[in-house]
Amino acid sequence: MLEELKREGVTIFLTTHDMNEAEEHADTLCMVDRGQVIAMGPPKELLRENQMGVRVKIPDRFNCSSDDLESIPHLGKWEKVESNYLLYGINSEFLPSVHRYIQAKGIQLDQIETRKANLEDLYLFMTGRAYRKE
Predict the structure, then answer these.
(1) Alpha carbons 88 and 44: distance in angstroms, whole number
(2) With contact defined as beta carbons under 8 Å apart, do 29 and 39 qualify?
(3) Lowest CB count within 10 Å: 15, 22, 69, 95, which one?
(4) Angle at 31 between CA 53 and CA 14, to 5 degrees
(5) Domain boundaries defined on the chain
(6) The dihedral sign for the CA sequence 120, 125, 129, 133
(7) H, E, C per residue of 9-74
(8) Is 2 helix (H, G, I), strand (E, B) or coil?
């Protein structure tokens, strides 16, 4: 139904906590945290501007240092969350750079997770690691 209204040129204001729904339906997205706008724009553009095309998760048992991670060519941003390092990049050379890095560290490919980054990644990166109940 939303897509049909969208095709008809109807402006729709949709309030949701479901980032997948927002990414699927929104032409323009406004992320709000504690009453403040923290990001606004087309979903794909927000991800690109924040260098979040791909997300790689490496378990922290491999003891990656900040300097090590920041030396990975084409790395956009990274963070440590619970027991994992989350690395984000957008350039086509990002994944080959990560592959060279994990090979040098002796990490097997089946010990990391790689997927397309999404708006939920961006929201959590910008606000903290969990949805707050307030």
Answers:
(1) 15
(2) yes
(3) 15
(4) 110
(5) 2-46, 53-116
(6) negative
(7) CCCCCCCCCCHHHHHHHCCCEEEEECCEEEEEECHHHHHHHCCCCEEEEEEHHHCCCHHHHHCCCC
(8) helix
- CB of 95 within 8 A of CB of 72? no
Tokens of 56: 């790689």
Fill in the amino acid letter for 28: T
Question: For the chain (length 134 residues), average pLDDT per consecutive 10?
Answer: 81 82 87 92 94 94 91 94 92 93 91 94 84 48
Give me 59's structure tokens: 């378990």
Q: Please, are residues 101 and 93 in contact by the beta-carbon 8 Å criterion?
A: no
pTM exceeds cut of 0.85: no
Report how far apart, in Å, the C-alpha atoms of 67 and of each of 38, 46, 73, 90, 93 are.
Answer: 28, 27, 12, 20, 19
Report the CATH number of the 53-116 domain. 3.30.70.980
